[in-house]
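Box S1 | Example of a co-folding query
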Amino acid sequence: MLEGKVLVIANNESLKYHAKKDLEKHEFSVVIESDEAEAFEKIREDNFDVIMISIEEGAVDDSVLLQNLKGIKRDALVIVVSNGYSDSSINDMQRLGVFDFLPASFEPKNLFLVIKQAMLSRKEKNNIVIDREKIKNLDKQIALLNKKVDEGAKNTASLYRDLQQSYMRSIKALAQALDMRDEYTHSHSENVTKYAVAVGEEMGLSFQDIKDIRDACGLHDIGKIGIRDSILSKEGELTEAEWRLMREHPMKGAVILQHLGLKNVIELVKQHHEHYNGNGYPAGKKGEEIPLGARIISLADSYDAMTSERAYKNRRFSQEEALQEIKQNGGTQFDPKVVAVFLKIIDRFTE
Ligand SMILES: [Fe+2]
Ligand SMILES: [Fe+2]
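Box S1 (continued) | Returned holo structure for fe (ii) ion
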């Protein structure tokens, strides 16, 4: 059953009569209004599906209601009932959004047919509106989904960062435990960090390079975790076989850290025992082939080893002796540029 609400604005008695009788017979709800000003109010207040306007012959152009139709917020389709339409008045009416025309001397059955057509068309229009509504909802859902995907990616990234940091913390804790096991001073990694960062800063390295050096210093000997206590804590000189095992610690460290994803830090750990002249280990790299950070850590590491009590060294070097040793090895074991900077900053750390 096609239902709907029709407003009939008419002085035309025949139209008023048929609208009421014929349309209500077909279950349409019909409101009749004779006054245009009143009709305006009704259109504004009520939700009509069809508005039928009866206009006197030749007065289409003069209809205030018709001229103002576009300005009224309404969904209703408009049907004009009049006689004597000229081509220009038909064009005008179309421009004003009139849906259909009916002659004033209409056949009563045509009244229902025209209204029915308008109702059908309006229903179709509503369906399109519903579809648009669906599309709008779909758009919203997609936007929401995209937002969730974005948030998910952010969460994953921050989860990864948290994991990485927590992994780094665990390894650093392990490195600290190792410092104690290795019989170095309790703060070997800490001291190496202190010297290496000071050299890096003095050399004007970037924030990121300094950060990599700091992280690598804390972890540089982590590979010693795979070396037996009997070697690490051995009193006196190591045998050649023991040294071979000891020299594996930079590579072992790189393997332990591989899941950390910090490529530069891993390289610094791997190369902290390379020598400037190529006589170091594990790869025997020389000069600028060795990352600057590793050249800095190498010197800081050696200086702290010399000035600390170590089980396999008979005695501790004094600061002057250690500095002398460093100077002598500039250009062989150590990068001379790094040596020069180290000698410049070391005073900051003397008691
Ligand atoms: Fe080492
Ligand atoms: Fe070390």
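The pocket of fe (ii) ion (ligand 2) is lined by residues 188, 220-221, 301 (CB under 6 Å). The mean pLDDT is 84.
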